[in-house]
Description:
Bound molecules: zinc ion
Structural class: mainly beta
Shape: globular
Strand order of the largest sheet: 2-1-3
Amino acid sequence: xxxxxxxxxxxxxxxxxxxxxxxxxxxxxxxxxxxxxxxxxxxxxxxxxxxx
Length: 52
Ligand SMILES: [Zn+2]
């Protein structure tokens, strides 16, 4: 699964890690994140992420 980078702050979403603080289990692909998921660091929306 691909990692995605926030173009606003540089945070990298790693699907192997997920985003457990925000209810996203490890193993969740970026494409499968809820539409209202935002960057945990800066609040940017999914469309502000770039596939690595
Ligand atoms: Zn960000």
